[in-house]
Amino acid sequence: MGALPLNINIQEPRWDQSTFLGRARHFFTVTDPRNLLLSGEQLEASKNIVQNYRAGVVTPGLTEDQLWTAKYVYDSAFHPDTGEKLVLIGRMSAQVPMNMTITGCMLTFYRKTPTVVFWQWVNQSFNAVVNYSNRSGDAPITVRQLGTAYVSATTGAVATALGLKSLTKHLPSLVSRFVPFAAVAAANCINIPLMRQRELQVGIPVTDEAGQRLGHSVTAAKQGIFQVGLVGFCLVFATPLCCALFPQRSSIHVTRLEPKLRAQIHEQNPNIDVVYYNKGL
After folding, report:
1. pLDDT tens for residues 235-281?
2. Domain extents for the chain?
3. Is-above-0.85 flag for pTM?
4. Which of 27, 34, 100, 161 has CA atoms 20 to 30 A from the CA of 240?
């Protein structure tokens, strides 16, 4: 068997991201909870395979399926822009088991105020870790910004939950069970923009089709955060299918960018009509 060719594009997902089915297959792989069981050595081994292949070095005996497996293991544990290793519960593979557990507890313990407050706090703590871990771009975020986003989202969730709990206490218990979901939706409207406010201030990287950076765009950041917010609302129902609503590597027309960046891009390459960015997860 010959050596694996170097023309396999592992910079992109294995399946066509212009179709919903392709994105769904991609995110079913990214959110596979079994990735949480991999050891540090296995993660580092996958990282080495991917980085070596990108550098033009093929691990002896490596097959294409093994390469793609390593790529998805690497993607599941390391940030695509910064390359940093994500904390365990911040990885997308933790979404299904963590959300199942937290949602089950919020639906079970919804009658008493202390338990409502506690599980909304747990949920927002988890969301804060996920939103920070999967932010787009490599712009740093300060401890103060993190704290503001966390406290604001938690306060918003608890206030919404307690307010709706009070309003629905005379209604059938079935209605009361939906209170946690409304609280989570309200909190996500606060949590995501605040946790990613740095992106709204300095923008996120935009690239040409080949992945070459052209600059930073606040407009692309706004579009990406809006898409993530919509996905966050839908995540109540299904993680992989909702993640697939928009491509992770999204596109935006140059004409919609800020005038300064638009002029900068046209100066570099006047033929570019569309640029690309990582919207985050």
Report:
1. 655 555 566 667 777 888 888 888 888 898 888 988 898 888 877 65
2. 20-78, 89-281
3. no
4. 161
HEC per residue, the chain: CCCCCCCCCCCCCCCCCCCHHHHHHHHHHHCCHHHHHCCHHHHHHHHHHHHHHHCCCCCCCCCHHHHHHHHHHHHHHECCCCCCECCHHHCHHHHHHHHHHHHHHHHHCCCCHHHHHHHHHHHHHHHHHHHHHCCCCCCCCCHHHHHHHHHHHHHHHHHHHHHHHHHCCCCCHHHHCCHHHHHHHHHHHHHHHHHCHHHHHHCEEEECCCCCEEEEEHHHHHHHHHHHHHHHHHCCCCHHHHHCCCCCEEEEEHHHCCHHHHHHHHHHCCCCCEEEEECCC
